[in-house]
Amino acid sequence: MLIHTIDEVREKVKEWKKQGFTVGLVPTMGALHNGHLSLIKKSVEKCDKTVVSVFVNPIQFCPGEDLEKYPRTLDADEKLCNDAGVDIIFAPSPKEMYGDGHILSNDFLTYVIPPFFYVNKLCGKSRVGHFDGVCTVVNKLFNIVQPDFAFFGEKDRQQLIILKKMVKDLNIPVRIIPCPIVREENGLALSSRNKYLSDEDKQHALALSKILFNIKACYNNGIKDVSELSETAYSYLNNHHSLEYLEFRDADDLEEKKTADDNTIVFIALKIGNVRLIDNIALR
Amino acid sequence: MLIHTIDEVREKVKEWKKQGFTVGLVPTMGALHNGHLSLIKKSVEKCDKTVVSVFVNPIQFCPGEDLEKYPRTLDADEKLCNDAGVDIIFAPSPKEMYGDGHILSNDFLTYVIPPFFYVNKLCGKSRVGHFDGVCTVVNKLFNIVQPDFAFFGEKDRQQLIILKKMVKDLNIPVRIIPCPIVREENGLALSSRNKYLSDEDKQHALALSKILFNIKACYNNGIKDVSELSETAYSYLNNHHSLEYLEFRDADDLEEKKTADDNTIVFIALKIGNVRLIDNIALR
């Protein structure tokens, strides 16, 4: 069932809760692919009722980012959700979520702000304010839907770690369920932004997963020194690639690692033309 | 019943909700007086179950403020609550609320940050970060207790307006119930900080309510010009008083008023020795 208003979602969820049903939420920006589908399937399997939110959240886009041209495919998203057994597709307008009075800034809007230590690195460095927007909208969605479980992909691992921290810090009564990255057969992690890639770019994009898989193989072969592991990346890079970061960080608090261990995540961000892609792998 | 842990409160409230009871929350910092009691009575009257939280929240005190010497009177608070029919007194330790790992800063803690336009004036001007701490702890308490209603005094009117804005902006499923200021017979608004006043200071403290009552009388007599109304204050001030602000602002969004109207609140902050007192009055 496609719902556009907050009141209608609340009413539905209230009925469910009265009947003792558990509720799962899968927050998305739409343009659903098999990565999202894996989250949705997990929710449908685990919870009595599943809500998928489809909302291109303006406040998590930074100046110069792709808010206007971000893919919007609600009809296809709705079909995918219905086929997967989703109970509600919640697709509010920006006005429904933020009103239409003031501009969307921290001058006039209450924000949920993740800790600086978690956002001053990796994607947060180039995407200033991005995680503030993510935490704020996820907090709103949690308050609107009041799910028991919420499903997030490990593809956006920094986001996942920040949201887990938010839930802990603010005592939010929602359990976050992390879901593994879904990859094409060739290794490319699924992302809505892959649509921006030409066929040739897609070949170059394989560098991300190749670099990560190779680092994991080296780690499994006994190499623990982070500089040494990092150096293995360069053989996969060419002049079509602009490497933004390749970093080794703790899976819980994002502290930097000098020596890799089983709680280390390797994070990579790479630009191919104008398209910025991210990927990561757990060494465990 | 006195409860110190988050898990126990949650368990109790869960039982209540299963039985269909409505829940009221009265968040306090303890040192309860008749002002708090009026909030508590309202909750007990309106809701099936009432939780009073007693927590001196470290993150809402600014550098140089009275965190250490803030009055703590849990035994008396407990008795007052029990006599008033409160179901749970929730008195967590700072460690229970914030853990004991990192320091309490936005480097390592997720904060709920009210809009700058609401905090860059009145008390927010001198108490930098105060309302960030208030919004964060109230958000936590809402998530822990999940009340249907929460009761706040109009004494802290800027706080009340900011919390209503937070609830709206973040779609928090709690209804905020404002409660009128309770005054001594002589007009002095009740406050935990009145304990710091000597008998002589208490006499000087009457200036706050006298100024506000007189302004309201003048307004009712047809004076609408804010400068003219402000000037009436000076006859009540002497060299024991240090006036921090006397301002006329909108009851909903705190916009400054040049001409008073029925939606205007008059705010005053006055220092007597080292004790900072606030008061306000609605012109409606």
Give a nutshell description of this structure.
Two copies of one chain form a homodimer. With 284 residues, chain A is an alpha/beta fold.
Identify the notable features of this structure and list them briefly.
Pantoate--beta-alanine Ligase, Chain: A,domain 2; 10 helices; 6-stranded parallel β-sheet; globular; 10 strands; alpha/beta; Rossmann fold; homodimer; about 280 residues
Describe the structure.
The structure is a homodimer of 284-residue chains. Chain A is α/β, with parallel strands linked by helices and 284 residues long. In chain A, helix 7 crosses helix 8. Chain A is built from ten helices and ten strands. The model of chain A has no long low-confidence stretch (mean pLDDT 96). Chain A is globular and about 55 Å long. Chain A folds into two domains: 2-179, HUPs (Rossmann fold, 3-Layer(aba) Sandwich); 192-282, Pantoate--beta-alanine Ligase, Chain: A,domain 2, CATH 3.30.1300. The interface between A and B is medium-sized, with 28 and 28 residues.
Instruction: Name the pair of protein chains with the most residues at their interface, and give those residue counts.
Output: A-B, 28 and 28 residues
SSE arrangement of chain A, N to C:
EHEHEHEHEHHHEHEHHEEE
User: Shape of chain A, please?
Assistant: globular
Identify low-pLDDT runs of chain A. none
Helix/strand/pairing category of chain A? alpha/beta
CATH third-tier fold name of the largest domain in chain A = Rossmann fold
- Name of the CATH architecture of the largest domain in chain A: 3-Layer(aba) Sandwich
Mean of residue pLDDT values of chain A:
96
The number of distinct structural domains of chain A comes to 2
Which CATH top level class of the largest domain in chain A fits?
Answer: Alpha Beta
Major β-sheet of chain A, in short? 6 strands, parallel
